[in-house]
Amino acid sequence: MSPKQNLPLQPFVNDARFDWPPPSESVEGRFQKAAVTTDHGLCSQIGGTRRLCSAMNVLLFRSILRKGGNAVDSAIAVMFCLGVTNPQSSGLGGGFLMTIYNKTLGRCVAIDARETAPAAAHRDMFRNDSDGSKYGFKSAAIPGELAGYWLAYVRYGSRRVDWKDLILPSAQLCRRGVPVSEYLENVMKVKERHFRSNPSMKAWINPATNSTYKAGDLLPRPKLAATLEKIANAPDPVKMFYRGEMAEVIAREMAEGGGIITKKDLASYKPIFYDQLTNNHFRGDLVMCGAPPPSSFAVTQLIVSVMSAMYPEGHKADIRNDPKVIHHFVEAMKFAYAQRYGSCEEASDLKKGDQRNFQNSPGRLSLRAVCIGVSKEYDHKRIYAMDCATNEGRRATVCVLRRD
User: Fold this and answer.
1) Positive or negative: CA dihedral 287, 293, 298, 299
2) Is the dihedral of CA 129, 145, 268, 228 positive or negative?
3) What is the pTM of this model?
4) How many folded domains does the chain comprise?
5) In a 3-state reduction of DSSP, which class is residue 102?
6) CA–CA separation, 65 vs 46, rounded Å?
7) Which of 4, 140, 246, 272 could form a disulfide with 241 if both were Cys (CB 3.0 to 4.6 A apart)?
8) Residue 114 marked ligand-binding
């Protein structure tokens, strides 16, 4: 995100294509009052402090922070947008984890709105159908995204921005066409055979070319626009989605398509609040806080902890230019990711609210720091090996800072 970039406000000559804000050319940005980073330039502007034009330059929206919204308002608006622009990694059918830090109070809270398994799910349901866990109605879990957004908005929103204003810019993008990124073009190309074989997925094929949409094309999503508009204008969107008319539609389509999500599953879904997990094994009085597993907080804080053990206060660590520091950082990441799936018991304890520092006793940190060599990679299986591995899907990442 660059402070010099902005969307063009002049009319577009080619109504079938759109050029969105390019990604920042710098790895670092400096901002005085607020910053928004996302996986898509349009979404950063929806959540940020700039004037935003729609994809067809017809309607102008004031971005959420300019309206007086806080970081939570902005994050919700951004995530609705990513569900539109980056459907491969975000959307109403999924879930999220959110960490909220209040500087005035000096504490964090975490919201776990990840999707959950339906009541009828069991461990052997895909034993003879490996593709069934990835494709089709049975692969779907109970979505948590909307319930989590509403919870965050009600409890931590600024109350200066209406709920509908967080959603309608994204609905407008759907109405007028979502600009396809190069990455989305590649994702759709890989999935083209699946799109053609599944009647419900044929909207991803461009009728003008009989091929998947290309980068710069405008992808219309009228059905999603109608859904978002209903959610935006509902007095109780969670009731409508999980217990009302949308729940009826979801349950019916699941039953017709061979899925196992029921109205009872939807009605029983509730996001979870967690108190902060903290780590203070850093220089000075710095503290990290975040969400418990399955978030990656346990990984990121372990990386920083190992580096802090190797470079305590008073020791210079030039992460950009010193090859030794870069080497140590890479090795620290290898350590941390090897531990990600290696301790199910500790992860379970953390989810139950245990405030212990995950994998971060001073002894363990010292061991890891000693094991990382200066001139070679360290590859001892006891340190780097995983107990299990997983083929993870795509993720969307959002970070919003605001000085209130």
Assistant:
1) negative
2) negative
3) 0.81
4) 3
5) strand
6) 9
7) 246
8) yes
